[in-house]
């Protein structure tokens, strides 16, 4: 968006940070706040109170920010050379403050702002369906059962921005092999926690971006058994913060970011293609496969290039060309050998 349009002309020229805050907050939520302040009889005075005081008022509704940031722990892991990227890593504070996690709101800073109080203990991740031995992992087991490794992956959002993130975790294939995938399996389904008390976006259609919760995703069995899909339990050497999908999330680096489902509670091996959240919402825009492909545009924007978050300044992020399969063709191109990628987008 053009910089000259960022400031509303008028009698009251607001400070730039005020406008920025307004812009990253979805309209609906912003209006809710004002209406609540009005209802409290605070009127214009309430609306002009400093942000922290406003946040305090919202604590009355159990809706706003936790006082203390979520705490993370350092992890032990190896760093296989195969998954070290030459790319410049996106700074940690960008990775943890520019997020898509609609369960906590649709604005890019909403997940950071609204998820700090997220409670992941206790947690249960169930791996079941067409497997020989279903597995249940509790919070401890997520970081203890498998040897952890660090993998730096490119993350390409369908909205045409990207990051380079050093994740810590283990491969999905390792977990599935442990469970023993039955021979009639064709797909793997994933499901995010459903907990509207903790995830305000699951309570309100507007705040949750219209998604039908719980957020669900899926892969074919061949994709899932490829060595790239990663179950991340950390980033930058520490356990995941909630806005990035604590305590465990999938990372599928050759697909658009919406496939990389966060805060996973169930992985189910199936014999049919499972429904997936963005495809359910708008199937003409978001397919099941969602492979990064600079030649197949999204109906409303080009996928030929991307804005690299963290490279360049706030208003001048660097634009770089998008690579086929996000640069992971050597690992995955074979999976799609005989497939029309325009049809199966
Ligand atoms: N449960 C859940 N998982 C999700 C999302 C979401 O809204 N809910 N957003 C997806 C999208 S669109 C992207 S681009 C990535 C962003 O991951 P990040 O915030 O860690 O960069 O998470 C994906 N996983
Ligand atoms: Mo995304």
From TrEMBL:
Tell me the subunit arrangement: Heterodimer of a catalytic subunit (MsrP) and a heme-binding subunit (MsrQ).
Entry keywords, A to Z: Metal-binding, Molybdenum, Oxidoreductase, Signal
What Gene3D superfamilies is this protein classified in?
A: Oxidoreductase, molybdopterin-binding domain (3.90.420.10)
Q: Any idea which positions bind Mo-molybdopterin?
A: 99, 102-103, 157, 192, 244, 249, 260-262
Q: Per the record's keyword annotation, is Signal included, yes or no?
A: yes
The record's remark on the cofactor is:
Binds 1 Mo-molybdopterin (Mo-MPT) cofactor per subunit.
Ranges for domain Oxidoreductase molybdopterin-binding come to 119-278
Gene that this sequence comes from? yedY
Q: From which organism does this entry originate?
A: Shewanella litoralis
Work out whether the entry's keyword set contains Transmembrane helix: no
**EC number(s) given by UniProt:** 1.8.5.-
Q: What does this protein do?
A: Part of the MsrPQ system that repairs oxidized periplasmic proteins containing methionine sulfoxide residues (Met-O), using respiratory chain electrons. Thus protects these proteins from oxidative-stress damage caused by reactive species of oxygen and chlorine generated by the host defense mechanisms. MsrPQ is essential for the maintenance of envelope integrity under bleach stress, rescuing a wide series of structurally unrelated periplasmic proteins from methionine oxidation.
Q: What is this protein called?
A: Protein-methionine-sulfoxide reductase catalytic subunit MsrP
Q: Which reaction is catalysed here?
A: L-methionyl-[protein] + a quinone + H2O = L-methionyl-(S)-S-oxide-[protein] + a quinol; L-methionyl-[protein] + a quinone + H2O = L-methionyl-(R)-S-oxide-[protein] + a quinol
